[in-house]
Amino acid sequence: MSWEIELNEQCGRDIRKYEKKNPDELEAVLLNLEKYKEALDAAVHPRLVSFGFMHSEPKGMIAIDQTGGALPSGKKRKRLQETRLYTYSDLESKTLHLLCLGSKSSQPKDIRFAESAVDALRQG
Fold this sequence. Notes:
YaeB-like fold, 3 helices, 5 strands, about 40% helix, about 25% strand, globular
């Protein structure tokens, strides 16, 4: 069974903002998300998946950033603004929750929001 991706309302708003203002950063993060999901589908447990673009965060969250190799077109990536997509993997339902997306400057606020979203998910 493959993992399902669930996008919450806040993350949807964040993505729409990045589509307009930071499309290159969004593309890079989404490419890394794709790699992460493919690895989750093949892994026995989410904690066995590790990439350089992944960062452990509180409450079992993983932040996916914009770093990585060449783009699918083969072009080298230009210098991008630091960006984080906060995710939470629910092992029982095999759902990868996309919680929020933000820049390095919004990181403290984003982590607080993501932690409260994880608390809500765990409470059912």
